């Protein structure tokens, strides 16, 4: 029997249930993966609440990414072998003991990562890559302002931005989160409750402002970001955990600035070439030890609601993983 977290009614994480099912036979072209760890992302919370752009038919199992070992290969499935250690990319379905997927959904697990790190790598770092490289086109020496730098995508943006030669200003809500951001390369640290970040950015840049803003928070944070940007700035909209912000067109015009939406997964579905280039780079940087997710919490599968609450309450630093054994 296979355990899976099941959403039968949209709502809070506590409405989910851990259920058991028999393993289903493989169809031609499919493979079975024993999941060892699954990564949590904020879209998982939104999806079970019915607030995400993707709305799977009920019932469904949440979870967008996992890591594990290939245990069975169906007829016509190519390019994979039993025993391969892999990352599994899914739109939902990862919060379970096993996944039945196609080889195209599998990526080799970096040898430098354990299963929890592998299961929390591609979504967060893939979003940061797409934001900073494909959309923001960040250049060495530019000032990168990262909001929510203690979160999964924010911390990934700190890492990648620093690796690409940017001057990174990290903002977060606690000293603990900022300490982790500093350990991943942040040059300047700003705690929201100690100094308005717009004032801090102006102080740090001698009034010039940030060239690129990485914003998974939205709301007032997004609106205040428009008041501390440099000429030609790119404001990257990653999400809206803090609410929906309004773009003041007069401020954008005066600064010659751009607001760019970031949807890493959809970009790949529209243009698969982008995904191949991104994946190759992320795997190479992982193997070289340049990037590594910070997994602050590893919880057993049955603690799925507690794990999701860590994201909702912003208590995670980096990533949270569900462990299957």
UniProtKB/TrEMBL annotation:
<dbReference type="InterPro" id="IPR011032">
    <property type="entry name" value="GroES-like_sf"/>
</dbReference>
<protein>
    <submittedName>
        <fullName>NADPH:quinone oxidoreductase</fullName>
    </submittedName>
</protein>
<dbReference type="InterPro" id="IPR013149">
    <property type="entry name" value="ADH-like_C"/>
</dbReference>
<dbReference type="InterPro" id="IPR020843">
    <property type="entry name" value="ER"/>
</dbReference>
<dbReference type="GO" id="GO:0016491">
    <property type="term" value="F:oxidoreductase activity"/>
</dbReference>
<dbReference type="Pfam" id="PF08240">
    <property type="entry name" value="ADH_N"/>
</dbReference>
<feature type="domain" description="Enoyl reductase (ER)">
    <location>
        <begin position="11"/>
        <end position="322"/>
    </location>
</feature>
<dbReference type="InterPro" id="IPR051397">
    <property type="entry name" value="Zn-ADH-like_protein"/>
</dbReference>
<dbReference type="InterPro" id="IPR013154">
    <property type="entry name" value="ADH-like_N"/>
</dbReference>
<dbReference type="InterPro" id="IPR036291">
    <property type="entry name" value="NAD(P)-bd_dom_sf"/>
</dbReference>
<dbReference type="Pfam" id="PF00107">
    <property type="entry name" value="ADH_zinc_N"/>
</dbReference>
């Amino acid at each position: 029997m296979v355990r899976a977290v099941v959403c039968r009614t949209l709502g809070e994480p506590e409405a989910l249930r851990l259920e058991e099912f028999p393993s289903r036979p493989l169809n031609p072209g499919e493979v079975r993966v024993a999941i060892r760890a699954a990564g949590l992302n904020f879209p998982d919370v939104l999806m079970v609440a019915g607030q995400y752009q993707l709305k799977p038919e009920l019932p469904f199992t949440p979870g967008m990414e996992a890591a594990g070992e290939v245990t069975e290969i169906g007829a016509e499935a190519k390019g994979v072998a039993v025993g391969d250690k892999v990352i599994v990319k899914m739109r939902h379905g990862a919060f379970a003991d096993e996944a039945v997927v196609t080889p195209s959904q599998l990526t080799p697990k970096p040898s430098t990562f354990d299963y929890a790190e592998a299961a929390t790598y591609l979504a967060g770092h893939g979003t940061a890559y797409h934001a900073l490289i494909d959309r923001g086109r960040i250049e060495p020496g530019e000032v990168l302002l990262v909001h929510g730098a203690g979160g999964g995508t924010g911390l990934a943006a700190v890492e990648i931005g620093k690796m690409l030669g940017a001057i990174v200003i990290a903002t977060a809500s606690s000293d603990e989160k900022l300490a982790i951001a500093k350990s991943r390369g942040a040059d300047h640290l700003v705690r929201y409750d100690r100094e308005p970040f717009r004032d801090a950015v102006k102080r740090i840049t001698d009034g010039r402002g940030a060239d690129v803003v990485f914003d998974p928070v939205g709301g007032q944070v997004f609106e205040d970001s428009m008041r501390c940007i440099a000429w030609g700035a790119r404001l990257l909209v990653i999400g809206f955990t803090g609410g929906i912000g309004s773009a003041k067109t007069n401020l954008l015009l005066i600064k010659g600035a751009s607001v760019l939406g970031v949807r890493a997964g959809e970009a790949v579905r529209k243009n698969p070439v982008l995904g191949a280039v991104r994946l190759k780079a992320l795997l190479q940087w992982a193997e070289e030890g340049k990037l590594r997710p910070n997994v602050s919490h590893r919880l057993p599968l049955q603690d799925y609601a507690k794990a999701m609450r860590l994201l909702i309450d912003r208590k995670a630093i980096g990533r949270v993983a569900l462990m299957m054994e």
